[in-house]
Each structure stands twice: as structure tokens, then as C-alpha cells.
Amino acid sequence: MRDKTKAILFVCVHNSGRSQMAEAFLNHLAKGKAQAYSAGTQPADKVNPVVIEAMREVGIDISKNRPKVLTIDMVEKAGKMITMGCGAEAEALCPASFIETEDWALEDPKGKTLEQVRKIRDEIKKRVTKLLNELE
Fold first, then answer.
1. For an engineered disulfide with 19, which of 12, 59, 76, 118 has Cβ 3.0 to 4.6 Å away?
2. What is the per-residue burial (b if ≥16 Cβ within 10 Å, else e) of 20-50?
3. In angstroms, rounded to a whole number, what is the distance separating the alpha carbons of residues 118 and 112?
4. What is the DSSP letter of 128?
């Protein structure tokens, strides 16, 4: 994607839940008009299996995704970075920002039931849809 303003980087601590869902929704819904990437400041070993199941329910397969460590190269390629739940309690683990950044205060799906993850998933989809509308 050549238009940096439409390259969105989603970042959370473990890159195993929220940021993975946001990346998948944006890439699915944008149909090539924008591109999403995701990463974590302290990536987990694997994507949360409950998150994989919740996304599968809406027809998006992220089972082959792997958590990735945030790099400066990723930040430089993005037009906007959205951190996921970087409130006061996680501040030390959240990246410093050199580009337009917004924080989506979302609950971490780690340790949650499928029903709880569905609520987080649906909130992420709502916010991604709004973001895409703002990009157009």
C-alpha cells in the first residue's frame, strides 16, 4: 500500500487478542482501501485460542496468525497507530508514539470466556468500521 495515511498499526502488549482482531477486521472490511498491521510490546507465544474461535464465528480465520514484536520500522510505515488498552496500569508497556496515535481502552480477552470475548470482538468491529469511515 503506497498511501501511508491508510496504513494502520494496532498495538497491544501481547498481540494475542485485541490487536489481532482489529487487524483482521480492518483488512477484511477495507477491501484493499486501507491496510492494517498489528504488533505487541511483549508478544505472547500464540494468538489466544478463544479469540481465534470468536473471529471464526464471524467468518474470519486468524488461526495462522502469530504475535509479532513491535518494531520502529512498523511505526514508520504506519500513518496512524492505535494502542489497545494502554491505560495508566499498562503505561510502562505501551510504546512511545511518534505518529498520530489513539488509544482504544478495551478489556484484554486473556482469561475471558467466549461470551466475554464476543463482546470485545463486537466493540472492536464497531470501532474499526468507524475508523474506516473516517479514512474515506
1. 12
2. bbbbbbbbebbeeebbbbbbbbebbeebbeb
3. 10
4. H
DSSP 95: P
Range of the domain at 63: 4-135
DSSP E strands in 5-129: the ranges are 7-12, 35-40, 80-84, 101-104
pTM for the full model?
Answer: 0.86
Domains in the chain, number: 1
CATH of the domain at 24: 3.40.50.2300
Catalytic residue positions? 12, 86, 94
Q: Do you know the residue count of the chain? A: 136
Are 56 and 117 spatial neighbours (Cβ–Cβ below 8 Å)? no
